[in-house]
Amino acid sequence: MPKSKKSRSSSSHHVAPAKPYSTGGSLNNNNKNNPSDRKLTANTNLIAPNTSIGQHFLKNPAVVTSIIQKAAVKPTDVVLEIGPGTGNMTVPLLQRAKSVVALEYDPRMVREVLKRVQNSPEEHKLKVIQGDAIHSQWPFFDLCVANIPYQISSAIVFKLLAHRPMFRCAVLMVQEEFALRLSARPGEALYCRLSVNTQLLAKVDQLLKVGKNNFRPPPKVESRVVRIELKNPPPPVNFVEWDGMIRLLFNRKNKTLRSVLMTKSTLKLLEENRRTWKSLQQQQQQQQQSNNKSMTMHVDGDEETTDESIQQILEKILARHEYKDKRARNLDLDDFLQLLADFHTEGIHFSA
Questions:
Q1: Which residues form the Ribosomal RNA adenine methylase transferase N-terminal domain (predicted)?
Q2: What is the pTM of this model?
Q3: Least CB-packed of 2, 130, 208, 275 within 10 Å?
């Protein structure tokens, strides 16, 4: 876009400490020294996207309009936009929402999006925070709309799932395969830990498929827009324990649950967790007795002689609901919730 004369903008701009995004494992990065990118920038005076941090600008106005319509932005909404880039989606969001908080890592983009609204009626409604979306503290928002760098999609989704206070929904542009993982069902090839954890805490809808040519520069993968709506109230599950169990079972999702749980390393881990839990339970009992001014010193002294081994306990749990020969890839949320309850009944606990 043409350069404007320097002037002091009244839009709020906060600079926070930032860490660069990890570029490892990105599926949509192109070489930032791509000659075609340099040629495009030189010929059109457009700011060059930094693909090393996953910048692929959404350039199709029709797709932008569709995303905002599907997000159902209200005039009373505070919208969080992660990665506004040059502001192609920021401006129409400002026209519909009460305000927009734009979280941007690249200082060049901060300047661009501020210039985009300079001296416009929407200028006072925009607050730009420079920082890393993963490590920054997010402000209050009603709605999140974002075309996020694909290599940080998992981190962003998990941060959204854990964010409090609850927001109405998040509408995200993500890599197509990642989008399909979010809503994959038991037995499907893409069903994984991400699928289970997301579906425990939220409802996921596939909204829109977006082709590569809608971006500058085109990424190497297709994209999709998804809506994530948190379940309210959230399920009464300790998510740290839940994720610890799910992580363990999906580490080898094609193996039977018995094969996964009966390895020496897993048995040792679960035994250590069980001893820690029992020790904490005994401390709580002793504390309670002390508070009640009881002189009883009973601490289940004969428990050690009658204890089942961790392997025997696991065999009993797996036989209870015929889980022994089942695989994590085929279990649904109810199955995992039942397993976690059975583990807890037997004093077996997990950590992430």
A1: 63-232
A2: 0.78
A3: 2
